Amino acid sequence: MRFSFAVSIALAVHIVSAHYIFKPLVAGHKISTRAVRQPKDNSPVLEYASGTDIICNSHPSAARETVQIAAGNKIGFRLDIPIYHMGPAAIYLGHAPRKVADWDGRGRRWFKIAEWGATFDPFSFTSLNRKVLTTFVPRTTPSGEYLVRVEHIGLHQPGAPEFFISCAQIRIVNGGSGDPPKVSIPGYIPLGDHSVNLDIYWPIPTNYSVPGPAVWKG
C-alpha cells in the first residue's frame, strides 16, 4: 500500500513537472520577459475551438513593454524547461488593429510564420526536447504593432490535446507590403480536428499535418 501511494505521488509530480511555460521573448538580440503577457502558471489550455484562453493563455498578466524588431530578424520564445511532450509547435503573428497593448487578440488577424511538425522512422516531433523556438519575421511583413504567439500542442493523451501558449507584444519596423491570408483564434483549428485528436502511439502515424493554416513566408 505504501509502495502504491509513493508511486502515485511520484507519478503526479512527474506529470506536473512535464508542464512548461514560454516566458522570455527572443526578438533579434533582445531577450524580454516584460513584453510577454505572462501566463498565470504552466497549466495547458484544453479548450481550443472556443473561448479566449486559446488566444494568449488563461488570464495572462499585462505586458510591460512592446519590443521593436525589424522585419527579417529573429523572433521566438524560450521555455523554462525543454519540451517534454510529443506534438507540433507553431509561431503566429497577429496584426493589431491599433495599439497592440489594447488588443485582446480577437478577430481574423492572425497568420502562421513557422511550424515544427513530425518526423518518421522513428515517429517523433521536431519540437521535442527543444528549449527555444525561433524563426524569422518575413521580410515583407507590413510594419505595425503585433502580438507574436507561440504554441506547443501536447498529444500524449489521445483526444485531449494540451496547448502551451504565450503571447508577446512587438512593433515591426522596416516592413514590406505583404498580404498574408489570415485566420481567427479561436477558429483556426476545427473542433475534433484529427491533427490534435489522433493517437500517436497506436497505430503509429505514417503521415501528419500540423494544425492551422499554412506557413506564410512572405
From TrEMBL:
The keyword Calcium does not apply. It catalyses: [(1->4)-beta-D-glucosyl]n+m + reduced acceptor + O2 = 4-dehydro-beta-D-glucosyl-[(1->4)-beta-D-glucosyl]n-1 + [(1->4)-beta-D-glucosyl]m + acceptor + H2O. InterPro entries: AA9 (IPR049892), AA9_LPMO (IPR005103). GO terms for cellular component: extracellular region. Keywords: Carbohydrate metabolism, Cellulose degradation, Copper, Disulfide bond, Metal-binding, Monooxygenase, Oxidoreductase, Polysaccharide degradation, Secreted, Signal. It is an enzyme of class 1 (oxidoreductase). The keyword Cell inner membrane does not apply. Residues 33-208 form the Auxiliary Activity family 9 catalytic domain. One of its GO terms (molecular function) is monooxygenase activity. Its cofactor is Cu(2+). GO terms for biological process: cellulose catabolic process. It is found in: Secreted. Its EC number is 1.14.99.56. Residues 1-18 form the signal peptide. Belongs to the polysaccharide monooxygenase AA9 family. This is lytic cellulose monooxygenase (C4-dehydrogenating).
